[in-house]
Write a structure and sequence with these properties.
It is built from eight helices and eight strands, in the order βαβαβαβαββαβαβαα. Helices cover 37% and strands 18% of the residues. By secondary structure, the chain is an alpha/beta fold. Helix 2 runs parallel beside helix 3. The model has no long low-confidence stretch (mean pLDDT 97). The protein is globular. The protein has one domain: Alpha-Beta Barrel (TIM Barrel), CATH 3.20.20.70. It binds D-xylitol-5-phosphate (DX5) and zinc ion. Zinc ion (ZN) binds next to strand 2.
């Protein structure tokens, strides 16, 4: 499922919400690897988005698609995890600030047969990852403060990606590192260079009319790293 070296995850936050099903189909046809599903609750972030029923409906229409659920909710509960796992998530991540028993919650996600991840806000230190590697299938590094699409990537977060890659290598593990926020054709290469391998793209993909061309531009942006 995750054998490609680099993958793009289209964030439906920037999709056409009045034709979400068709729009996701269009994104998959264009070749997007993953559908990124941003869940916001008006508590963790000042915005409100998609409940599990949206995911269930999309999964029914596109059973082969990989749905990546990014929970920006507070608190995170087993009930919430369960709802999105049952609805068809392949990956679920949450922010450590919204959970007291982080290790237990990661284990709970994995027990559902879903890949488990922690999300780090720009101001959140990565040190806790050291003690959680065996429960972490991936790490999601926020390159903007979460809540809205269309923001500019915060350059200091690139250093954090590199720090996480180094920490993981020291521990002899190779988690997937996903980046989220302000990733576009101009910034994607520096994210890859820092060590990321999954790139969430909202405005730079779903925000464009021609998704094939958007993906091509992103791959071209990546090429400068691949060729280096
Ligand atoms: C922000 C979300 C992102 C967002 C990214 O809170 O987690 O997934 O949709 O959007 P862009 O790519 O426009 O920065
Ligand atoms: Zn996200």
């Amino acid at each position: 499922m995750f054998e490609k070296r680099f993958m793009f995850a289209g964030s439906i936050l920037s999709a056409n919400l009045l034709a979400l099903g068709d729009d996701v189909g269009n994104a998959l046809d264009a070749g997007i690897d993953i559908i990124h599903f941003d869940v916001m609750d008006y508590h963790f972030v000042p915005n409100l988005t998609f409940g599990p029923m949206f995911l269930k409906a999309l999964k029914a229409q596109y059973p082969e698609a990989i749905f990546d659920v990014h929970l920006m909710v507070n608190p995170v509960t087993e009930e919430i995890i369960n709802a999105y796992a049952e609805a068809g998530a392949s990956m679920i991540s949450f922010h450590p600030e919204s959970c007291i028993h982080i290790e237990r919650m990661l284990s709970f996600i994995q027990s559902k047969g879903v890949k488990a991840g922690l999300v780090l806000n720009p101001g959140t230190a990565p040190q806790l990852l050291r003690y959680l590697w065996d429960k972490l299938d991936f790490v999601l590094v926020m390159t903007v403060n979460p809540g809205f699409g269309g923001q500019k990537l915060i350059p200091a977060t690139l250093q954090k990606i590199a720090d996480i890659r180094r920490m993981a290598a020291e521990a002899n593990v190779k988690p997937l590192i996903e980046v989220d926020g302000g990733v576009d054709a101009n910034t994607v290469a520096s994210c890859a260079k820092a060590g990321a391998n999954i790139f969430v793209v909202g405005s730079a993909f779903f925000g464009k009319d021609d998704r094939k061309a958007a993906l091509e531009a992103l791959n071209q942006g990546l090429a400068s790293f691949r060729e280096a």
